[in-house]
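Batch manifest, entry 17 of 40.
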Amino acid sequence: MAEPTTTYEAPENTVPAFKSPEKRRTNKYAIFCATLASMSSILLGYDYGVMTGAALSIKDDLHLNDTQVEILVGTLGFYSLIGSAAAGRTSDWIGRRYTIVFAAVIFFVGALMMGLAVNYAFLMVGRFIAGVGVGYALMIAPVYTAEVSPASCRGFLTSFPEVFINGGILLGYVSSYFFSRLPLNLSWRFMLGIGVIPSVLLGICVLAMPESPRWLVMQGRLGDAKRVLDMTSDSKEEAQLRLADIKEAARIPPECNDEVVAVAKQSHGEGVWRELLLRPTPSVRRILIAGVGIHFFQAATGMSTVVLYSPRIFEKAGITNTNKKLGATVAVGFVKTIFILVATFLLDKFGRRPLLLTSVGGMIISLVCLAVGLRVVDTHPNEKIMWAMALCITMVLVNVAFFSIGLGPVTWVYNSEIFPLKLRAQGASIGVAANLVTGGIISMTFISLYNAITISGAFFLFAGIATVAWAFFFTFLPETQGKTLEEMEGLFSKFNWRDSINNRSNQGKKATVTTNGDVQMGTKG
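Output type: structure tokens
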């Protein structure tokens, strides 16, 4: 006799781990916290954006050569490395919130010194201090945001730092465009010095947000953590589940419900570097490779050169007027900002992997086309080939659009959510450090690189690196959409890219459930 069956339509998307009985439409408090924390990313964006125009004025005013300009522009990444490396331990010591305030104070001092600089040496000291502040902000903002966000909108909220980076870049471009009309000795000082304003606003506003619930649990402050989770979760049930998961990760007994408990020393960060680098478990090793890899490729595909040297790229494409070059650069900032805003609404709808692979695929095509256009312009120095000029300008905009819709935001989202609780701050800082070192090397050597292999050759090289990046992302990075932060270690321990493809191919199929509980998949309809 045939076994009776019951047929139902499998849902299109992955089934969530639990269903909140009374889910709110939006968690405005979580959005508020994420917005305030992510404001710190404006510091990096503004510094990158404003330096595109400031470098032109500084070179003429202080009579610098190309090597000195490369050092001035490119060393920010190396200076930021110091702040990024220190931010992990600092945030475990004084908390995520006060680390953001600390970053704002450091950047304030650096921006003020750059604005008052009287020579190249004084300017470099100010840039060093500002770079340390940027490193602190760059690491801590996505970590705090990931820890305070509910799983349902974590991708949306943890993309906020990239939104504010792009907003800061746009502000820097606009500042360069308007202040370039001042006398030469004042224009770049106003461009750089005005950076004290966002740092002051950041330092004040951040005091209004709560501490990270995961950091509070690490300190044994369960009562405070529960209150923050109640306000930042989609339901009371989710808040309880999040608290239980965090307590388990922090090795606090689940039955413990005291307001304050004593925590083991290891919960404060001791031994973290050993567990990350010297004796990692297989899943932690995969997580570390993924975090470092995604940050490395984000920087190695050359976006920093487009941001920092776009006036030179446009000049190579045939635009010689300074105001027109800066105007075209402002257009780059607008495109980046618009498409990063689009990406924030797609991350939790389509997932990290589809956006990442689509983004890098588009970047490969645009980089090849940009290189071809620049090659044509280079080989006809005495002619204005309009189609090649138009291709170059269009491909710069297309490249930043594809970057901003995937690789830009997904990198910060991914790196901030994949590390286990105990390893998160220091693990995230390693990924950021890889980004800063790679970006710093590329920024410091770009002029020398295109002098050696031509500017078209440089972008062919970036296209090749982007191709390798696509292959790495496809084979090594699992989808993290809808997973809680405490599930990530298990996700990486069993991920296989073939399984990822099979899971996607099973979506939309009809499932037949037999009376003994077995599930059989068939074609839909």
